[in-house]
TrEMBL record:
GO cellular component, one term: plasma membrane
UniProt xrefs under PANTHER family: CALCIUM-SENSING RECEPTOR-RELATED (PTHR24061), VOMERONASAL 2, RECEPTOR 118-RELATED (PTHR24061:SF545)
Principal location listed in the UniProt entry: membrane
InterPro entries: GPCR_3, GPCR_3_C, GPCR_3_Ca_sens_rcpt-rel, GPCR_3_vmron_rcpt_2
G-protein coupled receptors family 3 profile domain span: 1-175
Residues passing through the membrane, by range: 76-94, 134-154
Organism: Equus asinus
Gene Ontology terms, MF aspect: G protein-coupled receptor activity
Cellular compartments annotated: Cell membrane
Record-given protein name: G-protein coupled receptors family 3 profile domain-containing protein
Domain of life assignment: Eukaryota
UniProt KW keywords: Cell membrane, G-protein coupled receptor, Glycoprotein, Membrane, Receptor, Transducer, Transmembrane, Transmembrane helix
Membrane association type: Multi-pass membrane protein
């Protein structure tokens, strides 16, 4: 939204007419509604169910979640991947904003690591069976969450806790 706002403010920009306040406020609800609709269709047509898997390890029965419809599951993952890709592109474009928006560089890097984590997750997810699959899913979720938290919030904590002189309004206005 910030990138669109800065580009719309340029003199002679065609975006100025296209981008209104209502447009910027409807982006998140519309994309969230699309996600909810895709998930609702998946859960309504072929919901996930419990599956007892005893072939991967002899003598052990593993209870796992069967995805139901592979097509619907792929659509959900594909849409989430599209949202992540769009977020990465917007964060990449926001790197050139004025200095008061410098966290865009950290968001860009964290989105890059987030994308690489989930790109490596997909082939591993489809080739693993049994208890290792659950552990790998948990590790991917924790790794991507830790990456986002680290690169976005640690930098802010550094300024707030260790460099409080930079955390004043006057310092931001000088930039």
């Amino acid at each position: 939204m910030v990138v669109l706002a800065f580009r719309a403010k340029k003199p002679g920009s065609r975006l100025r007419m296209c981008v209104a306040r209502t447009t910027l406020k409807t982006i998140v609800p519309v994309y969230s509604q699309i996600q909810a609709t895709i998930c609702g269709i998946w859960l309504g047509t072929s919901p996930p169910f419990l599956n007892k898997e005893s072939h991967s390890e002899p003598g052990v029965i593993i209870i796992e979640c069967n995805k139901g419809s592979i097509t619907a599951y792929s659509c959900v993952l594909g849409y989430m991947g599209l949202l992540v890709l769009v977020s990465f592109i917007v964060a990449f474009l926001a790197r050139s904003l004025p200095d008061t928006f410098t966290e865009a560089k950290f968001v860009t890097f964290s989105m890059l690591v987030f994308c690489s984590d989930w790109i490596s997750f997909l082939p591993t997810h489809h080739s693993t069976k049994g208890k290792a699959k659950v552990a790998m899913e948990i590790f991917s979720i924790l790794a991507s969450s830790a990456t986002l938290c680290t690169f976005i919030f640690i930098c802010k904590c550094y300024v707030i806790l260790l460099r409080p002189e930079k955390n004043v309004e006057g310092c931001l206005k000088k930039r």
